[in-house]
Amino acid sequence: FTQHVQTNATLINDAWCDCFHRNRIVVGISVDGPEEIHDAHRRFRNGRGSHALAMKGIEALHRNDVPFHSISVLTADAMEQPERMYRFFRDHGINDVGFNVEEQEGIHTSSSMQGSEMEAKYRDFLRAFWRLSEQDGYPVVLREFDQVITLIQGNQRMTQNELNRPFSILSVDWQGNFSTFDPELLSVASDRYGTFNLGNLKDLSLVESTQTDQFRRLMKDMSSGVDSCHSSCDYFGFCGGGNGSNKFWEHGTLASSETNACRFGTKIPVQVLLERFEEGPPLTPVSPN
Ligand code: SF4
Predict the structure, then answer these.
(1) Ligand 1 mutation target, pool 267, 270, 271, 273, most atoms within 8 A of CB
(2) How far, in Å, CA of 257 to CA of 204, rounded?
(3) Three-class DSSP labels, 205-239
(4) Is 121 in contact with 266 (CB distance < 8 Å)?
(5) How confident is the model over 243-280, as pLDDT tens digits?
């Protein structure tokens, strides 16, 4: 197995980089773009923005040759500035980037990223980002496109994914309660599924947990949701049937299919990519003067 860490990078120094190397830890950082875009939402408790310290952490990763990827929450403001966003990642050597759009989740009962207008803006943003990277010879690779390209090149399609396949992921909370499927559902209270947990590691083995009513109920609804995706969605092979947390937060049940999150996370990126393929061969990279 591999160990992963997702961090805001503000505490990364040479000693941490040594630890990442020694333990072969896969590092993901959370950085949203240029300073004022990042600091609009990523602040410390004292109100100070975290961008400056995050950039120091990124410098340490580069200095120590630690490979890393980034996850960036895409705000409406950032979507208006694809060129600035692209240059930020390119100029700081952040070449493996995934965008997360704001989601409806838990007490966050609505998202600003909803509706056809936001979908059109996101589509435009991805198109522009792709074009800019293409002109430069792809120094920045977007996770959203990379996954799809890998599947197309390998002539493969997904039949499931790690978020809806049982025990691909095991999540454990601080008290030892555990769940599988989507980590975002660990210990979440709900009328329909209780806490989503299967038991506690102190008194239940993983094998025993598969015999519980709770596991059967989650598995039944998760399978039903994936089946529904499979029979209704042209994008199934690039997605594998979505994830439980988005389905639960948006529809109240795992036994459902399309979500706002999957339109942003899968459908629009695939549409933009296929549209680009249909336009013709790649642009010739622009050489620096
Ligand atoms: S893109 Fe959405 S509707 Fe299609 S398979 Fe994925 S989760 Fe289901």
Answers:
(1) 267
(2) 32
(3) CHHHHCCCHHHHHHHHHHHHHHHHHHHHCCCHHHH
(4) no
(5) 999 999 999 999 999 999 999 999 999 999 999 999 98
Amino acid in position 43:
R
Q: Which of 266, 268, 270, 274 to mutate to test the pocket of ligand 1 (most atoms within 8 A of CB)?
A: 266
> In the sheet where 141-142 sits, what is the strand order?
4-7, 26-30, 68-74, 96-101, 141-142
List all residues whose CB is within 6 A of at least one atom of ligand 1: 229, 233, 235-236, 239, 241-242, 257-258, 262, 266-267
Q: Is 268 helix (H, G, I), strand (E, B) or coil?
A: helix
Distance CA 240, CA 159 (A): 5
What's 4-153's CATH class? alpha beta
For residue 258, which atom of ligand 1 is closest to its CA? 3
- pLDDT confidence bin for 288, thresholds 50/70/90: low
- Which tens digits make up the pLDDT trace of 193-239? 999 999 999 999 999 999 999 999 999 999 999 999 999 999 999 99
* Nearest residue by C-alpha to atom 3 in ligand 1: 258
**Ligand 1 center to 281 CA (angstroms):** 29
Ligand 1 mean position, distance from CA 81 (Å): 28
Instruction: For residue 143, give the nearest of 89, 62, 182, 102 by alpha carbon.
Output: 89
Which of 251, 137, 132, 243 lies closest to 192, judged by CA? 251
Residue type, 172: V
